[in-house]
Structures are given as structure tokens and as C-alpha cells.
Amino acid sequence: xxxxxxxxxxxxxxxxxxxxxxxxxxxxxxxxxxxxxxxxxxxxxxxxxxxxxxxxxxxxxxxxxxxxxxxxxxxxxxxxxxxxxxxxxxxxxxxxxxxxxxxxxxxxxxxxxxxxxxxxxxxxxxxxxxxxxxxxxxxxxxxxxxxxxxxxxxxxxxxxxxxxxxxxxxxxxxxxxxxxxxxxxxxx
Length: 188
What we know:
This protein is 38% helix and 16% strand. By secondary structure, it is α/β, with parallel strands linked by helices. It has a domain at 29-105 and 140-187: Beta-carbonic Anhydrase, Chain A, CATH 3.40.1050. A five-stranded mixed sheet has the order 2-1-3-4-5, with helices on both faces. A hairpin with a 6-residue loop joins strand 4 (167-172) and strand 5 (179-183).
């Protein structure tokens, strides 16, 4: 029986042997000098770059659940800062999307599923005793525009973000690719 990993490795072997990678060759520096924070939603994998007219090498793209900067010193913010300071990104775009799985997400059902899959109540309690509010950590958002505004605010006002870097906020329709402008950094 063939499994997913073997399928990937078989495809990759042919991809390399046939030099299919050559059409994707570029540098580590984004051609369009931008870094994008967006959601990991599967519908955006190809749609978002096409809707923004991005090709391979045009932008740094950071993906996480909900396009959220949930901690000002977490890995998402670190990636944005590295893109700006080391990889020549000159603008930041935060792009949330309609019909997001993080919209209205409540922690309780996620925690229940964790328990069903073997995570003990003791482990969850240990996190709480250690100062981690797992319910807050797993909580989504109620309004995608407000969520995008919140992430834009964290990035724009971060003490390590250089002044003058435009941080824009947008929301994309995961069906049509239509962009709605939430925050235009050029106007501020």
C-alpha cells in the first residue's frame, strides 16, 4: 500500500530528474520587496498568489491559522522582522480571508478533540498551572476585519519594526480571489 510520504518522494525524484525545478529558480530575496502574512487555508495555496499577480520569488509568504500575530515575540513576528531586516522586504501585507476556520473558533471543542486523541486532562491542567491560558491560545476571532486590523497594529507598532515600513491589511474572498482593503498604510 502506497502512503502519502512515498507518493511525495516518488514524485520528487521524477521532479528533480526531469529538471522541473529550473522554471522556479530565483533568489532568497523577494522580487516585489514584500512579506505577506496570510492564512494556511488550502483554498489560498494557488489562489492568493494568482489574485495578487505573484510568481515564484516575488514575495516572502508566512502562513498560520487565521493570519494572526498572536504573540509580539513569536515566530510569526520574528519571520516578518527577518524579512524586513535581512531579506529586503520593504512592505508588509496582512491578508485574512472570509469563511476562515479561525472565525468563531472556540477552544472547548478543540480541547475535547485533544482529549479524545489521547491528551490527558492532567497535561491540560499542567499547562494552566504553568501560566498558559490554553483557552485563550486556541481561541479564534469574531470578525476577520478586526482580526486583520489587530495583526496590522501589532506589526506596525512593534518596538523592533523600523518606522516607515508600510503595513497593509486586506481580506481575500477564498472563492473569487477578490481583495477588500482593510488598512491602506499609504494613507497613514
